[in-house]
Amino acid sequence: MIETTECIRASNLSFGYADGPTILDIPDLTVQSGERVFLYGPSGSGKTTLLGLIAGVLEPPSGTLSVLGHDVGALSSAERDRFRASHIGYVFQMFNLIPYLNVHDNIALPVRINEERKKRLGCSLDIAVKEAAAHLGIEQLLDEKVTRLSVGQQQRVAAARAILGAPELIIADEPTSSLDANRRHAFLELLFSNVAEAGSTLLFVSHDLGLADQFDRSLSLPELNHAGE
Amino acid sequence: MLLHLARQSLSNRLLTTSLTALSIAFSVALLVGVENVRTGMRESFSNTVSGTDLIVGARGGTIQLMLYSVFGMGSPVANISHETWEKWDEHPAVSWTIPYALGDSHQGFRVIGTNESFYEHYKYRGGQSISLAEGRPAEEVFDVVLGAQVAERLGYGLGDPISVTHGMSDVGFMNHDEMPFEVIGILDETFTPVDRAIYVTLEGITAIHLGWEEGGPPMPGEEIHADHVHEMDEIHVSQITSFFLGAESRAYTLQLQREISTSEQEPLTAVIPGLALSEMWQGIGYAEDGLMVISGFVVLVGLLGMLVSIYTSLDARRREMAILRALGAGPQRIVSLLVLEAGLLSALGAFLGVIFVYAGLAALQPWLEGEFGLLVPIRVLDQAQLMYIGAVIILGFVAGLVPALKAYRTALHDGLSVRV
User: Fold this and answer.
1) In angstroms, rounded to a whole number, what is the distance separating the alpha carbons of residues B300 and B291?
2) Where are the domains of chain B?
3) Touching check for A55 and chain B: CB below 8 Å?
4) Statement: the pTM of the whole predicted model exceeds 0.90
5) A59: pLDDT strictly greater than 80
6) Are A160 and A135 in contact (CB under 8 A)?
7) pLDDT at B56 over 90
8) For residues B199-203, average pLDDT
9) What is the pLDDT of residue A27?
10) How many domains would you assign to chain A?
């Protein structure tokens, strides 16, 4: 651990896919631990790429990128997979769930993939899944097939999965864009209260600037990113 | 956890999964079934005759001797004299002999002249004896005992008259019509060539050839009729074709064989049936090897079908891969998942295939036995079959590698972007 108060720190970060142009060129980006950060980015601005880098799914960029005190560039790809599984919760825009697993198994999936995350549960997987589901008001859906759920319910399952075992960093990639205004608000409320309870950092990415004022801080990817200039 | 995922994923695509598993199951069933039939054939074949230590005939090819004495195929080139047979029959090392006199037929079925020793000593398939379903053994000159299949095909029963044709042609123009034989016994089914022959006494065979000593039918007016035969005190049997021999002890077999083959009284050939049968099987057995190769290819086609079905499902599963990656599954996990799915599918297919084989055998066994005289035993899988099944499952895992590696590349390239 370099500094526990910094959750994400990037400097002189530059990335392009093999043989492609540079997509991201970020001189400086810092997210403090426990912050709820809104990252604004219209589509095509490199949001998903940035999140892929932070989550360690993509090959590390040039420059410095440290997440939760770990230098991402120094980790092997297997180490990055382990790191992601045990420290990061991830929510997609939509289609978050594995269609052939029921709600319970979808929520339990990250813990089943990663042993470390299991140790951090502090209780049995079953109880933890039930708790997470209860926090998001879906405890009665645990045995359902996920294909039967409404989009709003699916997003709550995805959120329950992300907060299971209280990972330090929760990344949400446009999780509300498929919800209508009411549900969007309710979902955000739930997400916030759960994140607060877990003490996690929330990096919330959206193209919908209207949500920005509900967060501690808001950043704009087009301003951060100097690629293409 | 991977196993759980793979199982759920497969059962989610139930239709494709079951079709793929079925195609593998059929190919495995074919493979194992062919192997079963092969074993059955080999055993049926090598058990056509048992308990006989030597078969002796006029000097000639051993295979030919086996063919005409045991399988009822082809014709003997020469006969051996009655005296020679008697001499060996009385040899101290010889326990029993069964004489065979061949050369005549009825409606295409061979007529064999033999004696009571046939009913007593002829054994097949691991020492089973000949038994009569109806009637009694042939004792009188014109007594006839039918093989089970002969009786069934020709619809004969006890008491029916039979005429014998000289030679093997169906439409005999040289019928021994003047000698009416009568069915007095019918043998139990043996599923060997015994079922396809007609048994008379040595005297019976001799009697129908009375007047044929010149090698052709008697001149008109010189035919000898049944009444004459009945009036004769004794019919002198002068020739037989071959004889089966049981030694006092198996240990004498080789010595007897050498003695018979080198005898100066008459040129003879003696074969050890077990040895000759396995030699013959080596000659004809490779036809089944061809069948085996074909079944092997069918299995490959089945596995290829599985490979294609998993491969084509990959595009639809790109989102699933992205989710798994976001949750911390490395690309290796995704490879393992797909390989495991393929392995499970082929294992399931192999398992179903084995069930098909047993169900098929149970259903078809009576038909195979009745129609082809082929007894395919139902028994636990032998080592070779287990190896085939193991190979199919391993090949299934290997086939899974192809789509898995494609998924690996896709997953690396897609990362977290779940655009499809």
Assistant:
1) 14
2) 2-45+286-414, 54-271
3) yes
4) no
5) yes
6) yes
7) yes
8) 92
9) 87
10) 1
| Of B220, B221, B267, B203, nearest in space to B58 by CA | B267
Distance between CA B226 and CA B171 in Å, rounded? 22
Phi and psi for A114 in degrees, rounded to 5? -125, 125
Averaged pLDDT, B168-197: 76
pLDDT at B141 > cutoff 50: yes
Distance of CA A70 to the CA centre of its chain: 17
The reply to whether residue A77 touches residue B326, judged by beta carbons under 8 angstroms, is no
Q: Which residues of B touch A (CB under 8 A)?
A: 1, 4-5, 8-9, 11-13, 319-320, 322-333, 415-418
Q: Does A67 touch chain B (CB under 8 A)?
A: no
Contact (CB<8Å) A110/B324: no
Which burial class, exposed, middle or buried, applies to A229 when counting CB atoms under 10 A from its CB (0-12, 13-18, 19+)? exposed
Q: How far is CA B90 from the centre of its chain?
A: 35
Burial class of residue B296 in the structure, from the number of CB atoms within 10 Å of its CB (0-12 exposed, 13-18 middle, 19+ buried): middle
Give dist(CA B338, CA B309) in Å, integer: 12
Q: Bridge-partner residues for B129, per DSSP?
A: B123
Dist CA B100 CA B114 (whole Å): 5
pLDDT at B173 over 60: no
A101 located within any domain: yes
Which of B1, B324, B327 best tests the A interface by mutation, with the highest count of A CBs <10 A?
Answer: B327
Q: What is the pLDDT of residue B221?
A: 60
Alpha-carbon gap, residue B137 to B140, rounded angstroms: 9
Minimal Cα–Cα distance from A109 to chain B, Å? 8
How far apart (Å, rounded) are the C-alpha atoms in residues A152 and A182?
10
Q: What pLDDT digit, counting tens, does each position of A7-56 carry?
A: 888 888 888 877 778 888 888 888 888 889 999 888 778 888 888 888 88
Retrieve residue B20's tokens: 């793929």
| Predicted pLDDT of residue B172 | 47
Q: Residue B288: count other Cβ atoms within 10 Å of its Cβ.
A: 17
A51: contact with B, CB 8 A cutoff:
yes
Q: Is the ipTM of this complex over 0.85?
A: no
Kindly report the CATH number assigned to the domain that includes residue A86.
3.40.50.300
Distance from C-alpha of A194 to C-alpha of A159, rounded to nearest angstrom: 9
pLDDT exceeds cutoff 70 at A115: yes
Domain of A215 in residue numbering reads as 6-224
What is the DSSP secondary structure assignment for residue B126, as one 8-state letter?
T
Beta-strand runs (E) in B242-399: 242-247, 268-271
Q: Which residue from B200, B238, B244, B184 is spatially nearest to B109, judged by alpha carbons?
A: B200
Residue A1 domain-assigned (yes or no): no
Give me the total of CB pairs closer than 8 Å, taking one residue from chain A and one from chain B: 78
Does A52 contact B at CB distance below 8 Å? Answer: yes
Whether residue A229 lies inside any domain: the answer is no
Integer-rounded Cα Rg, in Å, for chain B is: 32
